[in-house]
Specification:
By secondary structure, the protein is α/β, with parallel strands linked by helices. The chain has 21 helices and 16 strands. It has helices at residues 12-24, 35-45, 61-69, 73-77, 91-99, 112-143, 151-164, 180-189, 208-216, 233-236, 252-264, 290-295, 301-307, 324-339, 348-356, 362-376, 384-387, 391-410, 414-432, 437-444, 448-466; strands at 4-8, 28-32, 49-53, 82-86, 104-107, 170-173, 198-202, 217-218, 230-231, 241-245, 266-268, 275-277, 281-286, 310-313, 345-346, 381-382. The strands form 5 sheets. It has a 5-stranded parallel beta sheet with strand order 2-1-3-4-5, sandwiched between helices. A 5-stranded parallel beta sheet has the order 7-10-13-6-14. It has a two-stranded antiparallel ribbon with strand order 8-9. Helix 1 (12-24) links the parallel strand 1 and strand 2 (28-32). The protein starts with a strand and ends with a helix.
Length: 467
Amino acid sequence: MQKKILVVDDDPDIVLMLTDRLEALGYATLSAGDGQRALELLESEDPGLVLLDLQMPRMTGLEVLERLARQEQAILANRPPIIVMTAHGTIQSAVEAMKCGAADFLTKPLDMDHLTLVMQKALEREGLKRHVAVLRQEVESRYGTIVADTPAMASLIAEIKQVAASDATVLLLGESGTGKELFARSIHQWSTRVEKPFVVINCVALTETLLENELFGHEKGAFTGATTQQKGKVEMADEGTLFLDEIGDMAPDLQAKLLRLLQDREFHRVGGTRVVRVNIRVIAATNRDLSTAVKQGAFREDLFHRLNVIGVSIPPLRERPDEIPRLAELFLQRYTKETGKAGMHLSASALRTMRAYPWPGNVRELENAVARAVVLAAGHEIGPEHLRLPHDYEEKSQVDEEEPQVREASALPYHQAMERHRYFLIEQALKRTHGNQTKAAKALGLQRSYLARVLKQKQAEDRKDAK
C-alpha cells in the first residue's frame, strides 16, 4: 500500500516540484495551498506524513500545529508525523514548531536528497510507534482478565485502583496462579507511570549471581566475558514500575542490596563504584508466608517491612467460584480466536464440573483447562471430558450436584418427581460415558432405543418451555 504524503504550501511551483519527486519515489500525494485546507485533508484523507510550510495565508503552519496540539488526546495519538519547511529558518521558529509537535524542521531551498532521508526516518519512527502501540494493546488484552463478580473481588479491585494512584511499594500475596502479575500490571496501567516501562523479573528463575547481574547490570571488566557495560532491569524500569515476582525466594545477600534500592532508590552495578540513581515504583509478589519466613530467619525483617507498605492478599479461585464461569468464558473467547474455532461454548455440565473443582492451580490452571478443551473438542460444545480434570473431582462434582436435584424433585408430585429424576439419571450416565448413548444405556440397564426416545422427548419439552 502506497504511503500518502500531504504537501502544504502556498507556492504552486514548490507543490508541483515536491509532488513530482514524491510520486517518482512511489508515494501517493495530496496538496493544500493553505492551513485551513490542510486541516480538512488531515481529517478526511488520513495521510501518512505531512510536509508543512510555516509561512502561508489564512492560517500559518505554526497555527496548524497549535490547532492540532489542542485536539483530544485520542486524535493526537493518531496524528501523522509533520515536517515543517520555511524560507525564514530562525531558531525561534524551529523551537516553536518542535514544541507544537513537528517531527523535524527544514529550510528552503530544499535539498531533495536530505528531505527524502528525513521523510524516511520520520516514517520509520512512526511505524515503530504504531508497532509498540499494537504490542501494548495485545499485552493489555492478554492480561485484561480481572473479573469482579463477587463483592469481595469488587472491593479488592477498588483498593488496587486507589493504591495505583500513589507511588507506594506494594506486596501482593497469594497462591501460585491467582493472578499476581495481572494485578501488578493493572496497578501499573492505572498509575501515572502507565506510559513508562513495566519490567518483570522472576527472583526464583536465576541463580543468585545471575539474578544480581540481571537486576543491577555490570560494568565493563566486572568478570570474565564482561566486554561492555550492561544495564540491568532496575535501570530499564527507570520512571516506570519494577515487578519482583517470587520475592520470597531471593537469596539473603541480594535481599540486603534490594533493601538499599528500596530505601535510597540507588545501587551499584556489578563491578562498579559509581552510584546509579533511579525513579521506580516497586511491586513485589510471593506465594510464601513472609511473616513466617521472617521468624525462621529466611527473610529479612527490615526488607519485609519495606516491601509491605501496602499488602494485598489475592484470594484463591476456590474461594470465589461465582467468578469461574465468567473467567472460563473470557479464556474460551481468547483461545477460540487463536485457534480459529469460532462458535464453541461450554456445556452446563462442564460449568458445573468447573464450579465443583477446587482449582489448586487457581486461574492459571483454569486457563490451561479451557485451552486444552478448545483443542480437544471436536464439535462446538465443550463437555467435562474435554477439560481433562482429575476423575476424583469430576465424580465428586456429580455427587454434589445430585443433592439439590433430589431436594428439588422431592418437593414435586410423585409422577413429576420421578420424571425429573429419570432425566437426571440419564444425564449423569451420559456425562460418565462422555456422551456415548450406547454405553449410557448399558450402564443404566436400558435399551439404546428407549434412551434415545427419552432424550428426544426431553428435547421436545425443552423447546416447548423455551417458547
